[in-house]
Amino acid sequence: MRTLAAIVLICTATAPQAHPHIFIDTGLTAIVDDAGALQAVKVTWAYDAFYSLLITEDYGLDPDGNAVLTPDEEAQLRGFDMQWIEGFDGDLVARLDGGSLELSRPRDVTLVMREGRLVTTHVRDVAGTPAMAGHILSMKPFDPTYYTSYDVTMNVRVQGLEGCAIVRNLPDLDAGMQQLQGALTKLGRDQDAIEEGFPEVGEAFATEVEITCADR
Fold first, then answer.
1. How does pLDDT run across 9-47, given as a tens digit for each residue?
2. pTM score, two decimals?
3. Dihedrals φ, ψ of 64, to 5°?
4. What is d(CA 148, CA 127) in angstroms, rounded to the nearest whole number?
5. Paired residues of 51 in beta bridges
6. Mean of pLDDT values over 124-138
7. CB within 8 A of 120, min separation 6: which ones?
8. Whole-angstrom distance, CA of residue 171 vs CA of residue 176
9. Chain centroid to CA 153
10. Is there a contact between 162 and 208 (Cβ–Cβ < 8 Å)?
């Protein structure tokens, strides 16, 4: 997907404000309690090196430019990506057997700089704590406007419940590319996508994770 995103930027260079602009490797953990109920989802975001550099510069950190942060500098940055506006869903859609799950705002936020990349985690509680065993949990991280590209390249796992199968359903990239190019061509050369509103094509490029746990 990172390769695809780079191709998108090149192929749509003539379109106004071609995107995505931010690239995030993503990991997901379903947290299940002893009774088999889904308590929360832990999300890991590993930002691309360039965006990580921009953030550290914006905060006036890492003055020597060696892409290494001290524990104090990491503490200053912790939560920089958790200032969610009203209505923002955390770029994550979760469903159980096709029905939408309500997720809380983030808690237990962490941040480290790893090999020049900012890596953050946060936990979101699941309303109603539904049973996992015998059901299918699907999670799809994506930015509807595709300004940010999420790649599910990191670990996906279930914590607290055995016998679960995990499948990554990859998107149809050709169809997604056609949808993106079609949306961008509707903008004139003199139009700014930020002012006009980015086309909501992000889901077309999203990987859906399905977790199926055996019935007890």
1. 334 333 444 468 999 999 999 999 999 999 999 999 999
2. 0.84
3. -85, -5
4. 26
5. none
6. 95
7. 44, 45, 47, 78, 81, 82, 109, 110, 111
8. 8
9. 11
10. no
Maximum distance among all Cα pairs of the chain, rounded to whole angstroms: 59
Amino acid at 22: I
Give yes or no for a contact between 153 and 195, defined as CB atoms under 8 angstroms apart: no
Which one-letter DSSP state was computed for residue 105?
P
The residue among 129, 185, 138, 191 whose CA lies nearest residue 160 is 129
Peptide bond into 130 cis (omega under 30): no
Query: Using an 8 Å Cβ cutoff, are 24 and 193 in contact?
Result: no
Phi and psi, residue 23, nearest 5°: -125, 125
**Which residue type does 112 have?**
V
Measuring CA to CA, how many Å separate 188 from each of 14, 130, 206? Answer: 10, 47, 27
Sign of CA dihedral 191, 83, 46, 212: negative
Helix H or strand E segment including 178: helix 173-185
